[in-house]
Design brief:
By secondary structure, this protein is α/β, with parallel strands linked by helices. Helices cover 39% and strands 32% of the residues. It has helices spanning 43-56, 71-78, 81-87, 101-113, 128-142, and strands at 2-12, 17-27, 30-41, 62-68, 115-120. It has a five-stranded mixed sheet. Helix 1 (43-56) packs parallel to helix 4 (101-113). The relative contact order is 0.26.
């Protein structure tokens, strides 16, 4: 399997409000940036969308190192919370409905296709790729102001 490194980030001006997402994919010497946004969204929706859109670009099963500054995304996947929510009909352990079910339902089949390892990185810190994703996401969110 090919080894791909993916960095993602989401941004939202107001929450909800105009939002954007950015991703950087690295495979060997190759790098690709992608980004997008929505006029009315939330930060967590943008974080999830970044991961979805990055994984959608992979044309075959890969070993993926996924880096995100979103505890929501990384913890839900690495700690298996999302699978529990799914099993309980998208209800969390506190009996409240899980949020962003439409996006989780798009993401889980993509995750299942690949061997993904999850890495949380501190946002707005020394990680150049996370910072680049943040720049892409913020630029996209500004298109909707």
């Amino acid at each position: 399997m090919k080894n791909v490194t993916i960095y993602t980030d989401g941004a939202c001006s107001g929450n909800p409000g105009p939002g954007g997402w950015g991703a950087v994919l690295k495979y060997g010497a190759h790098e690709r940036e992608l980004s997008g946004g929505e006029a009315q969204t939330t930060n967590n929706r943008m974080e999830l969308t970044a991961v979805i859109e990055a994984l959608r670009l992979l044309k075959e099963p890969c070993e993926v190192e996924l880096y995100s500054d979103s505890k929501y995304v990384i913890d839900a996947l690495s700690k298996g919370w999302v699978y529990g929510w799914q099993k309980k009909g998208w209800v969390k352990s506190d009996k409240k409905p899980a949020l962003n079910v439409d996006l989780w339902e798009r993401l889980l089949p993509l995750i299942a296709t690949h061997d993904v390892r999850y890495h949380w990185v501190k946002g707005h810190a020394e990680n150049e790729y996370n910072n680049r994703c943040d720049e892409l996401a913020v630029a996209e969110s500004r298109k909707y102001k």
